[in-house]
Hints:
There is one protein chain. This protein is of the alpha/beta class. The protein has helices at residues 57-69, 137-148; strands at residues 3-7, 17-18, 21-27, 33-38, 44-45, 48-50, 71-82, 87-91, 96-98, 101-111, 119-125, 153-154. It has one domain: Nucleoside Triphosphate Pyrophosphohydrolase (Alpha-Beta Complex), CATH 3.90.79. Strands 6-3-10-7-12 form a five-stranded mixed beta sheet, with helices on both faces. Strands 1-8-9-2 form a four-stranded mixed beta sheet, with no helix packed on it. Strands 5-4-11 form a three-stranded antiparallel beta sheet, with no helix packed on it. A hairpin with a 5-residue loop joins strand 4 and strand 5 (44-45). The radius of gyration is 15 Å and the shape is globular.
Amino acid sequence: MGRRDYYNDPAAPPVNSLVPAASAIVVDDNGRIVLHRRQDNNMWALPGGKMEYGETLAGCAVREVKEETGLDVEVTGIVGIYSDPKHVFAYDDGEVRQEFSICLLTRIVGGELAVSDESFEVAFHDPDQVASLPMVDSIRLRVTDYLSGQMPAIR
């Protein structure tokens, strides 16, 4: 399903959904960050997605990382809470979602990098490479918050 991100855009459609979600900063032993390149917008992103019934937020992050990157992770901290009402996602099915995501810090405990049906590339990136990658502003903000060391951010 296609998705379009709007940030501080007066042309954004009205919101009709607010869904709890988790995203994850996945870091390897060398400090590299795992990102996947999404099929729906061709941008690099952190793994993440909406929380499902019966799971914890940490469980959501662990599941989404596994589904989107092939890696097994454990949660080690909170990067920040992101709920800016000026950031919305419009999906092809008519849902227009206000962002509400808690970004968690994770470390790799197993698995191997693999693409998913949501992405066509998954890779490790040195922190100094991230600034040059095509990425939506809200994802870049999470990476910047992580790299600043000023956690948790509340935005």
